[in-house]
Amino acid sequence: MLKLIRYLKPYLLTVAIIVVLLFVQANMDLALPDYLSRIVNVGIQQGGVDSPFPKLLRAAELERLSLFLDETERGQVKSAYRRYGSGDPEFAALAESLPAIGQDAILILTSDDRATLQAIRGPLSRALAASGVLRQLAANPLGQPDLPSIPGLDLTRLPAGLDLLDVLARLPADQSVAIKQAVLAQLDGLGDGMVEQAAIRAVRAEYAALGLDLEKLQTGYIVQTGLLMLALTLGSALVTILIGLLASRTAAGIARALRRDVFRTVVGFSGAEFDQFSTASLITRSTNDVTQVQMVIFMLLRMVIYAPIMGGGGFIRAMGKAPSMGWIIGLAVLVMLALIVVVFIIAMPKFRSIQKLVDRLNLVARENLTGLMVVRAFNRQPFEERRFDGANQELTSVNLFVNRVMVVMMPVMMLVMNLLSIAVIWVGAHQIAESAMQVGDMMAFLQYTMQIVMSFLMLSMVFIFLPRASVSGDRIAEVLRTRRSVKDPGLPVPLPPAQGARVEFRDVSFRYPGADSDVLCNISFTAEPGQTTAIIGPTGSGKSTIVNLIPRFYDVTAGVVLVDGVDVRAAAQADLRDRIGYVPQKATLFSGTVASNLRYGLDAADKVQLAEAVAAAQAADFVNNREGGYEATVSQGGANLSGGQKQRLSIARALVKRYPVYIFDDSFSALDLKTDSALRHALKDTVRQATLIIVAQRVSTIMQADRIVVLDEGQIVGQGSHRELMASCATYREIVNSQLGTKEKA
């Protein structure tokens, strides 16, 4: 995969945008448990009061609270509030909204300075909590066993409902100080969190004394927080859609570039490179392998970046809610990491073999489909079915093994998730009972742990696909880094313009890559313009190999091939092949119409040119008689045409454009003798000035050639006309004697 990292370069800006959006999405998702915690803690348990700072406070109440504040603290608290008395113009409006205020002066919190608020937070919370304790004692002096006892004050002798703050203010200074210290000492043992909770209860009581609608206050807070959560959820959904769109476009763009480059690379392969890769493998690499890479790129952009953000952010926020339960998350993370590593080690070797098995399955399927008529002719359907089933079963068994290993991860992780939930609830419940944690904080902690586990689940999903995609990426890179053995020179030599082109082989030898010996040795002959040069010889003598060297499907091992005096290796491949009309041994047609196949070499050819070429190739009868004529459909590979019809259309395709050189590589083998003879006579009239090179197995096809080159075991054993070779070449005589009668030999 890292070998293909350069394909990500055009999308770096998009990737950066995706990363930013993932941080935005993660922050939105991580904020939801915190807001849920606020609804439970503040909205439900605290009645909508979210701060130990009362926004409204009676002046008389502040005076009573001052009993628990020193001089500095009193000054700081008073500086944070603004006083409104009955003489102020704003007081009338306040009195209307606060029906229970009477004529008492009221204080409104106006300071928003963080330093000031932080300085008075602790003292004011302790004072409010202390006032709450005294109110509870006064309300039920004998029914509060958990409340602190106050030295020097017998609560049983005081009437119920008496304001103990007023009592405390009237006591002697030494007794008052002792009582205040006793109350504050009890509060110090509760911890800051519980003191603030007690202070908030006192704030709620103060709001009730002012006549505020506490139910409306609570409902308003819950609704406001809920709407904020809804907005965050909708925002997260929109960001998720945008991230998915950008990630999909990036992955699809990279896949498109990979397919394009693989195709361009394969199209530029010479025969030597095609010998390294099977056709089925190249098809798999440009389709299935690219799809695997595309899928994993999308998952990397969508999940692999998002999962660590969520996991890390969830851990930080969870520690902020309940640091004492961090060990639960740590233990769960260790278990999941161990599981992922074990599964990865077991599954990775199998992923390496899956793509090779896909290649083999494609190869078997392709051979059966292309050779279906042969399979049926020999009644080999059962054998081929067993062969396909064997490849299919082997691939299936490996896939099943990998999937069985991978599916273990989900139930195990779900088990870890459920055990984690139980542990959080168990430990959290004990801490709530001990007043060390609030219910909302425990719920938020539980949700954060679920988000952390889900992050690992997302990573595990990527680990399922990553090894296979890594193998696919290596296979694609193997094609892309394959160096072509046939390349254009840095400064190509232009070929001279000519109607015909002289083709010369000068002491040429050739050996296939990886072979131990040459298949052509010291080949030298010349094909002149306006003449027909024929090549004949036994099967495997190297006839097709010779003509493949002219358009540079392979490069010579030694010697030189010249076209109009220019070494073919010094010319541009496009310029060279633009001068050669090539008809291969196996007729290849493309899906489309007759006309589209004929125009394959010359898009601008008109109907007259097509008709002339078809007539010369002796294909006019069957083309005109087919329904649709030149617009008749040609199926893939010309499957709806006979062998002779495909050969004649292939010849006509080469004749549409007037080339200086024509190569017919055993292109008349499927024609009957009458059509063969008529076609050869038509060629002389149609391409009179061109150089014709004909490879043939039948002597009757090349008897009238101007020059015949006889090959045997990769060497030229005779050159000349038919009569000359009959007199001088034993190999040629053997071929003729095996094919022709006595009259025809002469």
Written description of the protein model:
By secondary structure, this protein is of the alpha/beta class. It has 3 domains: 2-36 and 223-368 and 440-480, Up-down Bundle (ABC transporter transmembrane region fold), CATH 1.20.1560.10; 46-212, no CATH class; 493-579 and 692-746, P-loop containing nucleotide triphosphate hydrolases (Rossmann fold, 3-Layer(aba) Sandwich). The protein has 29 helices and 15 strands. Helix 25 links the parallel strand 12 and strand 13. Helix 17 (409-433) runs antiparallel to helix 18 (439-480) and helix 27 packs across helix 28 (730-739). The longest helix has 54 residues, at 214-267. It is rod-shaped, with a radius of gyration of 46 Å.
Name of the level-1 CATH class of the largest domain: Mainly Alpha
**Tally of individual helices:** 29
CATH architecture of the largest domain: Up-down Bundle
What is the spatial order of strands in the main beta sheet? Answer: 9-12-13-6-14-15
The percentage of residues in β strands lies in: 5-15%
Mean pLDDT over all positions: 83
Give unreliable regions as ranges: 142-148, 742-746
Based on CA atoms alone, the radius of gyration comes out at: 46 Å
Report the CATH superfamily of the largest domain: ABC transporter type 1, transmembrane domain
Domain module count? 3
Question: What's the quaternary structure here?
Answer: single chain
Report on the biggest sheet: 6 strands, mixed
Give the termini separation: 67 Å
E-strand count: 15
CATH fold annotation of the largest domain: ABC transporter transmembrane region fold
